[in-house]
């Protein structure tokens, strides 16, 4: 039945299925997603493009739609387990968002064996009263084969993982080393002790650095050289390698495996700044004063010779002890490292002066054995060497952005906008209820965030406050419209320093070279993105910033081409992140299956109306404690405070709360880990007595109400009924253990 809010407007969008059978439509116009009930999902599949009519608004305030037309069926392959049930062959999709098994006719099973992971191509789409039908296109192997999780992810997310024969042919034709002809018209830096500083497991080396004291203006300062692999010398615009690189847009990093953007001959060989060999590079040569300000800079192509391959751990050890064994082994280069440390400290002063946001976050690394089994999950520790390289790269990126902006040529900027008005208000409310004196101004600046972070760094709840500050930020995108980088507090910023693994950096190199040659770089006719990224690109397009005073006239074909390139690179960056997270989630689930029933200490890392997510202290694994596991009482979800509060006991679960949990369930297919709250015996007894006392008082109040003919009792629930009440209003929702609470979590946390 339609209500008074019913709209007959139709719109187009892309279906996003849910494991519980319902779905959502991501609208092309960027408006809020529209809910599709299970009956509307019977004839469509995840990723199909549809036209939808709004029919009603449900009790939760969600717009509900009805599919009026299937515009385009997704051609993405479906990956799943090959099964036989009751004499019928079928494939159960690994991605539960598809919601329906795919029937496989007897003659379309290929060489697949029951239980194997296969790739399916649909031959018949689903109908209102019929399941989809397909044929097995590829057999990936057994589900427990080493690396199977990666094979699944690259196909699930459409990550290109096989180079074209044309690209491989071009790569094979490239020389194995730098030829004399390649060094013509380049500055010779082979005698400059440039060095690379990377992680222990790095295989390709994009950047090398060198610093020395220098006179800057009338004061002291440094000359800082950042040399970046000259990929553009070997990868010509529009070539087969270039087309494949654009399609990938970025390298994708998994535990134990990398899907590179460039063929290995380039990424690990000819372009990589390996030690003790000549390499071609593009150099950002800077003069930096004592205050960390870039006084002058220039770009030029050069030929270099890396004098050492350092690791972060090694450099940090040398800088902390110049007489230690690490320093003794690199004695000749220690003075250069100390000069780099000095310029880093000056750049750090400038960073603090401009108010750039600087939060310390914990990154993790999954350590696997030879068979692919997780041995442990450890925190990546950021030391001074990491920060040294980061500041040097930021300086080169800022110079690149300024150079392109001043040239008036189109190019790609890395743009990070401030928080949306909605997120600003949510953050202001949170800071107020948390008693933080500092707040956001009407037009928030990075300095506002940094001041709040500094003012709260010594509070016991600093971690949760900093988490909320981070969550209010938007994701950065690539676009030809420069509106600065909010988080880093730069008026113009781009990516110049990683052309081996990021396509935008390669484009920036080409533009800089064109400017140096007094030419204009022209984008080639690059392939259009696949349908898997059409939705994301359209949604990202709504975020393309506009500079003040920019004319509203129809953009030129050149501008549109650069916008398309930026959106494509942004979408594929998201794709790579999603694929990597999916593999890590699968590995963590498999790891935690070995720890079922075990207890761990953890911290609440996210709060929702249906429960809390907890990250374990020692394993850095996140799981859900559903609201039904929190105790036999009513819980109110307070969004401004980001907490669940028990109405009887007053117990609170909020960001940063310390808890003890037990691993109760692991769903490998759903990438879900469920925890059960473990209470100390004394606390459990105290809470039970408190709840019992509250129930007695409630029963007495209810009896008084009946005897006096009063109104309805406040609650008619039992101790086994749990309700989450949203403090923003709108009634209450009974929570049960049925359904997919963590799936809802994915929706609400998107």
The number of distinct helices, counting runs of at least 4 residues, comes to: 16
Q: Estimate percent helicity.
A: 25-40%
Q: Termini, distance in Å? A: 30 Å
Structural class: alpha+beta
The gross shape turns out to be globular
Uncertain regions spanning at least 5 consecutive residues: 1-7, 701-750
* Major beta sheet, strand line-up: 3-2-1-4-5
Mean pLDDT: 85
Strand content: 25-35%
Backbone CA Rg? 29 Å
Q: Total number of β-strand segments?
A: 33
Number of domains: 5
Major sheet description: 5 strands, antiparallel
Quick structural gist:
With 750 residues, this protein is α+β, with helices and mostly antiparallel strands.
What does this molecule look like?
This protein is α+β, with helices and mostly antiparallel strands. The chain folds into five domains: 10-72, Nucleic acid-binding proteins (OB fold (Dihydrolipoamide Acetyltransferase, E2P)); 78-143, OB fold (Dihydrolipoamide Acetyltransferase, E2P) (Beta Barrel), CATH 2.40.50.700; 165-417 and 479-546 and 556-581, no CATH class; 421-473, no CATH class; 596-748, Nucleic acid-binding proteins (OB fold (Dihydrolipoamide Acetyltransferase, E2P), Beta Barrel). Helix content is 29%, strand content 27%. It has 16 helices and 33 strands. A five-stranded antiparallel beta sheet has the order 3-2-1-4-5, with no helix packed on it. It has a five-stranded antiparallel beta sheet with strand order 8-7-6-9-10, with helices on one face. Strands 11-18-17-14-13 form a five-stranded mixed beta sheet, with helices on one face. β2 and β3 (34-36) form a beta hairpin. α2 (165-173) packs across α3 (240-248). The radius of gyration is 29 Å and the shape is globular. The two termini are 30 Å apart. 38% of the residues are buried. Mean pLDDT is 85; it is low at 1-7 and 701-750.
């Amino acid at each position: 039945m339609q209500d008074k809010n019913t709209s007959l407007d139709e719109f187009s969008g892309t279906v996003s299925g849910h494991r519980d059978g319902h779905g959502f439509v991501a609208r092309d116009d960027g408006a809020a997603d529209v809910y599709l009930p299970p009956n509307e999902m019977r004839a469509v599949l995840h990723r199909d493009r549809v036209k939808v009519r709004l029919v009603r608004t449900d009790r939760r305030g969600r717009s509900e739609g009805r599919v009026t037309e299937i515009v385009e069926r997704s051609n993405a392959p479906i990956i799943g387990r090959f099964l036989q049930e009751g004499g019928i062959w079928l494939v159960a999709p690994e991605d539960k968002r598809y919601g329906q098994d795919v029937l496989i006719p007897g003659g379309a099973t290929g060489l697949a064996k029951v239980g194997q992971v296969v790739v399916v191509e649909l031959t018949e789409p689903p109908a209102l009263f019929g399941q989809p039908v397909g044929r097995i296109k590829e057999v990936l192997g057994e589900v427990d084969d080493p690396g199977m999780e990666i094979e699944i992810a690259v196909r699930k997310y459409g990550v290109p993982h096989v180079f074209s024969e044309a690209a491989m042919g071009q790569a094979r034709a490239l020389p194995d080393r730098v030829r004399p002809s390649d060094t013509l018209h380049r500055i010779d830096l082979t005698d400059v002790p440039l060095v690379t500083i990377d992680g222990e497991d790095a295989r390709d080396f994009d950047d090398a650095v060198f610093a020395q004291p220098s006179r800057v203006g009338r004061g002291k300062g440094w000359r800082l050289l950042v040399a970046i692999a000259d990929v553009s010398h070997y990868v010509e615009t529009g070539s087969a390698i270039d087309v494949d690189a654009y399609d990938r847009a970025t390298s994708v990093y998994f535990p134990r495996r990398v899907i590179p953007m460039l063929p290995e001959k380039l990424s690990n060989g000819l372009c990589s700044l390996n030690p003790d060999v000549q390499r071609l590079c593009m150099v950002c040569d800077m003069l930096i004063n004592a205050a960390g300000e870039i006084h002058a800079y220039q770009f030029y192509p050069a030929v270099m010779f890396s004098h050492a391959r350092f690791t972060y751990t090694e450099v940090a050890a040398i800088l902390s002890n110049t007489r230690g064994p690490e320093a003794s082994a690199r004695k000749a280069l220690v003075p250069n490292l100390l000069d780099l440390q000095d310029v880093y400290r000056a750049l750090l002063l400038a960073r603090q002066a401009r108010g750039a946001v600087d939060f310390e976050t914990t990154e993790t690394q999954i350590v696997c054995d030879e068979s692919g089994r997780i041995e442990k999950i450890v925190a990546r520790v950021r030391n001074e060497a990491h920060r040294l390289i980061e500041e040097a790269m930021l300086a080169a990126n800022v110079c690149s952005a300024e150079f392109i902006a001043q040239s008036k040529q189109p190019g790609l900027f890395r743009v990070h906008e401030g928080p949306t008005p909605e997120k600003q208000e949510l953050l202001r409310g949170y800071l107020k209820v948390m008693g933080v004196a500092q707040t956001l101004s009407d037009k928030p600046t990075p300095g506002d965030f940094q001041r709040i972070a500094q003012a709260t760094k010594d509070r016991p709840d600093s971690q949760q406050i900093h988490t909320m500050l981070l969550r209010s930020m938007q994701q950065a995108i690539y676009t030809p419209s420069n509106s600065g980088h909010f988080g880093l507090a730069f008026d113009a910023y781009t990516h110049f320093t990683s052309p081996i693994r990021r396509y935008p950096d390669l484009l920036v190199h080409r533009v800089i070279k064109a400017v140096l040659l007094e030419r204009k770089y022209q984008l080639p006719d690059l392939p259009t993105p696949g349908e898997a990224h059409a939705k994301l690109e359209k949604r990202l397009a709504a975020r393309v910033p506009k500079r003040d005073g920019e004319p509203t006239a129809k953009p030129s074909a050149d501008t549109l081409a650069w916008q398309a390139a930026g959106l494509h690179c942004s979408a594929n960056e998201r794709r790579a992140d999603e694929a990597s997270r999916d593999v890590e989630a699968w590995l963590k689930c498999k790891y935690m299956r070995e720890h079922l029933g075990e207890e761990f200490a953890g911290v609440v890392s996210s709060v929702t109306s249906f429960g809390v997510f907890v990250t374990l202290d020692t394993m850095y694994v996140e799981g859900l404690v559903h609201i039904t596991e929190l105790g036999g009482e009513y819980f109110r979800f307070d969004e401004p405070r980001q907490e669940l509060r028990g109405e009887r006991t007053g117990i609170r679960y909020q960001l940063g709360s310390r808890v003890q949990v037990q691993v109760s369930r692991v769903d490998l297919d759903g990438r879900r880990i469920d925890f059960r709250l473990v209470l100390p015996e004394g606390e459990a007894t105290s809470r039970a007595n408190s709840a019992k006392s509250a129930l007695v008082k409630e029963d007495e109040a209810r009896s008084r109400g009946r005897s006096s003919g009063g109104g309805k009792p406040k609650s008619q629930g039992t101790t086994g009924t749990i309700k989450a009440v949203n403090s923003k209003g709108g009634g209450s929702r009974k929570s049960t253990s049925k359904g997919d609470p963590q799936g809802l979590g994915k929706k609400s946390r998107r």
